[in-house]
Amino acid sequence: MTRPRITVVGSVNLDLVATAEKLPIAGETVTGATFAQHPGGKGANQALAARRLGADVSMIARTGEGPNRDAALALLKADGVDLSGIVGDTEEQTGVALIAVDKAGENQIVVASGANRNLTPDDVKIDGAPDAILCQLEVPTACVLAAMRAKSRLFAVNLAPAAPVPVELLEKTDLLVVNEGEAAFYGEGIHRGEGMVALTLGGQGAVLYRAGKEIARAPAFTVPVIDTTGAGDTFCCALVLALAEGREEGEALRFASAASALAVTKPGAQPSLPWREEVGAFLEEQD
């Protein structure tokens, strides 16, 4: 099978992760945590996951200069993602995400966007016509619109974090991906167009719609949960990859659900991202 070509336009962060027994409530200090540093950012997570799942991947983003840039790009570089579209920003630092994770794997995340917010439509230079373009909302919406106007077989947007977007984006995107909170934020607006909408439901699995009508459903897989960071990003790129490969919608949704399930079984966003062989073996065990 020919590798799909996927271009990801999105954020690059360095994740600073504190893992504790419980998450703090407002005004509370929780001690006794362990600390780890990982590459992250929704865009970078999705680019790396797509690469590990079998795509040829190009990344378009902005980072600052210095050691945080090197650390944030380390796994993308090691796994062969094309980084020629990443612009160095001398005025801002590389984005940073402050992440707290509890013993059940639930998390709280605060992002300092840094150079991500300086990405411009002029930076979005997409060569040729890739099989798919995948975006998120951790970079300016104007950049997502620029990507939408480039040629590709499939244009997908993960509407996260939820924020107001032009109606044009909701109507013309081939695939929108949302979780329950994001679906509530956008309401029926996500079903305005003729494209597909993937809704993730946590422990209840995932549903795929077209023009507001359900076309596929996949149950959740039961796995030990270590850290949910990056699971949604894994789902997004796995679904895009499977659709770009021409898989039937139900099969593609099941593949994405399996990949995201494996992502929660290890700590960290990018270190937990599964390889295609792992997903294949996992699905064989479920049959």
Question: Can you lay out the helices and strands and say which pair or pack?
Answer:
Blueprint lengths: L4 E5 L3 E7 L14 E7 L1 H11 L3 E8 L3 H12 L3 E7 L6 E7 L5 E6 L19 E4 L5 H8 L5 E5 L8 H6 L2 E5 H7 L9 E5 L5 E5 L2 E6 L12 H14 L4 H15 L12 H11 L1
Parallel strand pairs: 1-4, 1-8, 2-6, 4-5, 8-9, 9-10, 10-11
Antiparallel strand pairs: 2-3, 6-7, 11-12, 12-13
Helix pairs in contact: 1-6, 6-7, 7-8
Descriptive notes:
- With 287 residues, the chain is of the alpha/beta class.
- It has helices at 42-52, 67-78, 141-148, 167-172, 180-186, 231-244, 249-263, 276-286; strands spanning 5-9, 13-19, 34-40, 56-63, 82-88, 95-101, 107-112, 132-135, 154-158, 175-179, 196-200, 206-210, 213-218.
- A nine-stranded mixed sheet has the order 5-4-1-8-9-10-11-12-13, sandwiched between helices. Strands 3-2-6-7 form a four-stranded mixed sheet.
- Helix 4 links the parallel strand 9 and strand 10.
- Helix 1 (42-52) crosses helix 6 (231-244).
- It is globular.
- The protein starts with a strand and ends with a helix.
Q: How many distinct folded domains?
A: 1
Low-confidence stretches: none
Name of the CATH superfamily: Ribokinase
Question: Helical residue percent?
Answer: 25-40%
Number of strands: 13
Report the top-level CATH class.
Alpha Beta
| CATH architecture classification | 3-Layer(aba) Sandwich
Number of helices: 8
Percent strand: 25-35%
Inertia-based shape: globular
Give the distance, in angstroms, between the N- and C-terminal Cα atoms.
23 Å
Structural class: alpha/beta
Strand order of the largest sheet: 5-4-1-8-9-10-11-12-13
CATH fold field value: UDP-N-acetylmuramoyl-L-alanine:D-glutamate ligase
**What is the helix/strand order?**
EEEHEHEEEEHEHEHEEEHHH
What integer value in Å does the Rg equal? 18 Å
Function: Catalyzes the phosphorylation of ribose at O-5 in a reaction requiring ATP and magnesium. The resulting D-ribose-5-phosphate can then be used either for sythesis of nucleotides, histidine, and tryptophan, or as a component of the pentose phosphate pathway.
Subcellular location: Cytoplasm
EC number: 2.7.1.15
Keywords: ATP-binding, Carbohydrate metabolism, Cytoplasm, Kinase, Magnesium, Metal-binding, Nucleotide-binding, Potassium, Transferase
